[in-house]
Amino acid sequence: TTIFNLSVTSAGINYDRLGLLFFGDLEIWRTTTAMPVRTGIFWNFQKDMTIWDTLLRSEQKVIMELDNLDDSVFTGAYNVTITALYYNDHVAITPADKIYPISSQSSSKNQSSVLSLPDQNATASYTFPKNMERAVVSILASGNGAEEFWYKHVPTEYINTFSNAIRPYSPFREVQLLIDVQLAGVSWPFPIIFTGGISPGLWVPIVGIDTYEVPSFEIDVTPFLPELCDGDPHTFGLKVVGYDSKTTFGTTAENWYVTASIFVWLDKRSDQTWGSVSHTLI
Fold it and tell me: Quick one: which of 79, 70, 100 has its CA closest to 33?
């Protein structure tokens, strides 16, 4: 078992910030910060990272993005320490044999590989091993900027009914996974109230649900293995859609930050996975 321990201190004034931790092009942790105060704050959080065992056993480029304002008004800098704790607890695990990123793959530029929707193209193409026995896509998606409070938005046709603080595309959001442009799975994000959001009673004296560990959504794509194991390249894509009364499922405002990881387990006793896939629209 591997546990990452995140410890942060800050003193001064600032807003909450989004933190993105990458191993190479794979995002392994998304978090946010507490709200700094002049007298100083400290927080600590632990996350089980055992699912990344395959990465943890090899050399990795570690990239953490924590964008921040630093001027005469916003003086709260964040001092971040991450410690890896390893436990020999003899628990039998079967970590994925391979992990593939769906990201901007910018680690070669020493940048985080997060993608911003709807502006960017969140796709990746891979030729997978022919002997896969299981595959799961783990998606990280959070609304930020104009989409931080997406759950308070209204259908687009009613946008002029309210003040400028109300935004379009309804309070519904769906994260979609596409394989070769075909819908392969969906998930519906849970509202996260970051520090500074709506009311101090929701993030003081403790932060809200999922604030320090933005949750991932897992979609099992094992039923698609007969197609994915054919030796040809296949494209995985991510979309975030809202409900627009004029277009049913439409776009969203900026910014939905997304990445995903394709976890693959191999059948060591076989060279080829066979089968058939039947697609039915309901």
Answer: 79
What is the rounded CA–CA span in Å between residue 201 and residue 205?
8
d(CA 89, CA 92) in angstroms, rounded, equals 9
pLDDT digits 0-9 by tens, 178-231: 999 999 999 999 999 999 999 999 998 889 999 999 999 999 999 999 999 999
Alpha carbons within 13 A on the beta-carbon side of 154: 11
In this prediction the pTM is: 0.93
User: 216-220 and 132-143 as β-strands: parallel, antiparallel, unpaired?
Assistant: antiparallel
**What is the rounded distance in angstroms from the CA atom of residue 168 to the CA atom of residue 160?**
10
Kind of pairing between the strands at 41-48 and 98-102: unpaired
Cβ neighbours of 70 (radius 10 Å): 11
Distance, in Å, from the CA atom of 150 to the CA atom of 174, rounded to the nearest integer, reads 11
* Strands 62-65, 18-23: pairing kind: antiparallel
